């Protein structure tokens, strides 16, 4: 199996679980990235500088490959961000040479949408598909598909929090890791949550008792008091929460109005996950939950003849591989509970590309 991608880390999101499953079953795999990803993010200054990023990401690909059972990884050094501007024939020749050298049964890359429209991804998809049709061995060409899931990260997190005996308090590293993980997951359609970072000046309500639930808050900075208001208006201070604490999970789990106020004691910043953006007309207090969120809409249907690969047993290795891309995903593999990881990453989707038809189209136009 040959995975042909644009950047180190593309392989994990497209097919990390499938790679691990295949190599576990004895398949021989090679992963090639056309660039070293030197135009990417630097999410950890300890991991790389702009000067070293390409070299670091090439090394990270080796580590991620090892986590997925692949010892044969390769980074070409085409300039990151420029693939769409290069002569396509030159890229196709490069890809044909790679395929003819390795002679895989299957080539896997992005679909024509490049997962989310990244020009490098779109180009590598096109190039890999056209190249496959021109090779002597004519391997099967698969495109990774990212159907928009209706799965909500907020639901998975709430289930997990409710299963714990004590209030969870994550580290700053956890908070950062979860934000990166949630952003990546929602961008690729693994999860449908609305994500937001909100600031609450000291003395303002983060949650008002009696409100319908829906939003889950992860405190990033500052501290907040959890206060229960009795029928006679008296206030009972229950707890103070700080960075790394979640608030709001009980109401969501029970589907009941908020049972306490959460008030910013000092200025608080929260990462907020919800099923949709808050409706502009939603008031506060005990308004109906139905009007409160504007949903993201239903998930798209799977394309016809979609291949669904059950990778639940390999989801943890997918996160392990993601964590190897430290400069991009500053997270630790054991940071998230297995239920969350399997819920998000349990299935990977592919469609078989009709390479021959594509090459005809390309030669005509
Ligand atoms: Zn990429």
Descriptors for this entry?
alpha+beta, binds zinc ion, 17 strands, Rossmann fold, four-stranded antiparallel sheet, 11 helices, 2 domains, seven-stranded mixed sheet, Jelly Rolls, elongated, 365 residues
Protein described:
With 365 residues, this protein is of the alpha+beta class. The protein folds into two domains: 2-147 and 301-364, Rossmann fold (3-Layer(aba) Sandwich), CATH 3.40.50; 153-295, Sandwich (Jelly Rolls), CATH 2.60.120.10. The chain contains eleven helices and 17 strands. The chain has helices spanning 10-24, 53-67, 88-102, 114-117, 119-134, 153-162, 172-187, 249-254, 315-324, 338-345, 355-364, and strands spanning 2-5, 30-35, 72-78, 106-110, 140-145, 194-200, 205-207, 216-221, 224-229, 235-241, 246-247, 261-264, 268-274, 276-278, 293-295, 307-310, 347-352. The protein has a seven-stranded mixed β-sheet, with helices on both faces. It has a four-stranded antiparallel β-sheet with strand order 6-13-8-11. It has a four-stranded antiparallel β-sheet with strand order 7-12-9-10, with no helix packed on it. Helix 3 packs across helix 5 (119-134), helix 6 (153-162) packs antiparallel against helix 10 (338-345) and helix 9 (315-324) packs across helix 10 (338-345). The protein is elongated. The structure holds zinc ion (ZN).
């Amino acid at each position: 199996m040959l995975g042909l991608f644009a950047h180190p880390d593309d392989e994990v999101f497209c097919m990390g679980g499938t790679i691990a499953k295949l190599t576990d079953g004895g398949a021989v795999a090679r992963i090639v990235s056309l660039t070293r990803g030197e135009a990417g993010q630097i999410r950890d200054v300890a991991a790389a500088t702009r000067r070293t990023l390409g070299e670091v990401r090439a090394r990270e690909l080796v580590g991620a490959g090892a986590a997925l059972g692949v010892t044969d990884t390769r980074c070409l050094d085409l300039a990151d961000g420029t693939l769409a501007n290069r002569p396509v024939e030159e890229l196709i020749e490069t890809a044909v040479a790679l395929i003819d050298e390795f002679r895989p049964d299957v080539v896997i890359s992005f679909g024509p949408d490049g997962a989310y429209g990244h020009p490098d991804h779109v180009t590598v998809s096109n190039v890999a598909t056209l190249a496959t049709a021109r090779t002597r061995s004519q391997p099967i060409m698969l495109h990774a598909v990212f159907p928009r899931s209706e799965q909500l990260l907020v639901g998975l997190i709430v289930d997990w929090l409710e299963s714990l005996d004590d209030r969870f308090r994550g580290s700053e590293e956890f908070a950062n890791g979860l934000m990166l993980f949630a952003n990546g997951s929602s961008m690729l359609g693994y999860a449908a949550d609305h994500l937001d970072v909100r600031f609450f000046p000291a003395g303002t309500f983060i949650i008002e008792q009696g409100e319908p639930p829906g939003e889950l808050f992860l405190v990033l900075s500052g501290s907040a008091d959890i206060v229960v208001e009795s029928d006679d208006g008296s206030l009972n201070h229950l707890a103070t929460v700080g960075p790394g604490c979640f608030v709001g999970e009980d109401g969501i789990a029970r589907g009941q109005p908020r049972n306490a106020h959460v008030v910013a004691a000092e200025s608080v910043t929260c990462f907020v996950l919800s099923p949709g953006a808050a409706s502009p007309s939603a008031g506060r207090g005990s308004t109906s939950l139905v009007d409160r969120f504007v949903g993201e809409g239903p998930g798209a249907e799977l394309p016809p003849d979609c291949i669904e690969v059950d990778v639940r047993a390999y989801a943890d290795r997918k996160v392990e591989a993601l964590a190897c891309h430290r400069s991009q995903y500053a997270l630790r593999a054991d940071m998230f509970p297995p239920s969350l990881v399997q819920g998000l990453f349990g299935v990977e989707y592919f469609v078989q590309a009709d390479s021959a038809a594509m090459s005809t189209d390309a030669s005509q136009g």
